[in-house]
Amino acid sequence: MTTARIQLPPKLIPVFSGPARYRGAYGGRGSAKTRSFALMTAVRAYMFAEAEQSGVILCGREYMNSLEDSSMEEVKQAIRSVDWLDAYFDIGEKYIRTKNRRVWYTFSGLRHNLDSIKSKARILIAWVDEAETVTEIAWQKLLPTVREQNSEVWITWNPELDGSPTDTRFRKNIPPSAKIVELNYMDNPWFPDVLDEERRNDQMALDDQTYAWIWDGAYRENSESQILAGKYRVAEFEPGKGWDGPYYGIDWGFSQDPTAGVRCWVYDRRLWIEYEAGKVALENDHIAKFMIDRLPAIERHKVRADSARPETISHVKSNGNGKRDNLPSIEGVVKWPGSVEDGIAHLRSYTEIIIHPRCPATLKEARLYSYKVDRLSGDVLTDIVDKHNHYIDALRYALAPLIKHKSAGLVLSRHQRR
Asked: What are the tens digits of pLDDT across the range 309-363?
């Protein structure tokens, strides 16, 4: 008999050993939670198929606007990392299934697709990733749909709010039939050097509270170093008549940073962030189409971008690949000494910043964008940590004509006077 070997962080071995209704892991960044659970869904799919059981592996997240927002790519990479799994699965651009067609994956957003989830045939495993934001109502609707004999619910999340529905259900009141552990970067035997360098940088630049939330799985609480603390909230909305905008901004990415775009509005002394688009390693030839596909009507409006890359602006404006996809009205923004600080002051001048749920990357940056903190005294400094700012920078560029240039003595914009 052939024995197959799977590598998991040691703390996860008991989680996947023996029977359980619930299996889960929570903690900070770099713990290999998501990759390990993605891998184990494939292992279990293999076992189901070989046992001639048919059904669905449901991979859910609170918000999922498209497959790009799902766990599909994580599952694909996990399968391809193991030769015998790679040979067993049929992987297409928009599907994953065993080659014998007995088990297949489906990907759903829990916020808007719960009713359709009820109709999924024979859910064998429901894995909810990034589960911190899942509402109690969503849990109440989802769990009864996972009702096959010996079916299971898997949960992975980064804690944020003490008392969130997910945390209350699966951390504070762990069900008797659950195997759930805390997993952080120090529990990951394959924690990469590049992430360790980032962690060390965060340890020096961020306050302890923010650092502990990112890396140690601690609860997130507002700290004085958070630039947008108390200024933003998440809510669904539809732009109305009389709203100013839309305003579009783009921040150019590099090898490790996303090219990020936003579409936003101004109304009632509030900033409304309606759409976002972002991707790492986005080639210049593909930028225009990528933004057109994700930021409605961007090709018909003025677009403001980081002026540090005039060659990119020129390329996106004319689009050198010969296709019609281009942004003819894109232009670089004017910068001045202190323009970043003036932009931050402008963002904080709004009564509120409302972030649509379809903009999770913008929301993440709103939470993490911070001032530096003195390592010894804990004092919040005036210098800004140059991280978690790609969508924030795109916002600044979008709003460039509205931002007050303090040193020039300009008056408040008409939007701010309202």
From this structure: 999 999 999 864 445 689 999 999 999 999 999 999 999 999 999 999 889 889 8
For 345, the token pair is: 């002051």
What distance in Å separates the CA atoms of residue 101 and residue 89, rounded to the nearest whole number? 9
DSSP per-residue string spanning 313-346: HHHHHH-TTSSS---TTEEEPP--TTHHHHHHHH
Residue 22: strand pairing partners: 153, 178
Which residues of 171-226 form beta strands (DSSP E)?
178-182
Q: State how far the alpha carbon of 82 is from the alpha carbons of 4, 75, 87, 258, in Å.
A: 10, 11, 9, 28
Other residues' Cβ atoms within 10 Å of the Cβ of residue 179? 20
CA angle 372-158-70, nearest 5°?
110
- Tens-place pLDDT, residues 180-239: 999 999 999 999 999 999 998 888 777 777 888 899 888 876 567 889 988 988 888 999
Q: How far is CA 239 from CA 243, 263, 271, 403, in A?
A: 7, 11, 11, 22
10-187 fold: Rossmann fold (3.40.50)
Q: Which tokens in the block code for residue 275?
A: 């759409």
| Residue owning tokens 């609170």 | 62
Which of 306, 310, 308, 309 minimizes the C-alpha distance to 391? 306
Every domain range in the chain assigned CATH 3.40.50.300:
10-187
Within 8 A by CB and 6+ apart from 47, the residues are: none
Rounded CA separation 300/329 (Å)? 8
Going by their DSSP bridges, the two strands 380-384 and 371-373 should be labelled as antiparallel
Q: Where in the chain is the domain with CATH 3.30.420.280?
A: 232-417
How far, CA to CA in Å, does 44 sit from each of 50, 104, 126, 139, 349? 10, 11, 12, 23, 52
Q: Which residues are 275's β-sheet partners?
A: 263
Query: Which distant-in-sequence residues (6+ apart) come within 8 Å of 251 by Cβ?
Result: 259, 260, 261, 305, 306, 390, 391, 393, 394, 397
The whole model's pTM is what?
A: 0.66
Find tokens 């703390």 and name the residue: 11
Q: Where are the beta strands (DSSP E) in 175-319?
A: 178-182, 232-234, 244-251, 258-267, 270-280, 303-305
Helix (H) or strand (E) holding 85: helix 83-88
Burial of 385 (0-12, 13-18, 19+ CB in 10 A): buried
According to the CATH classification, is domain 232-417 in 3.30.420.280? yes
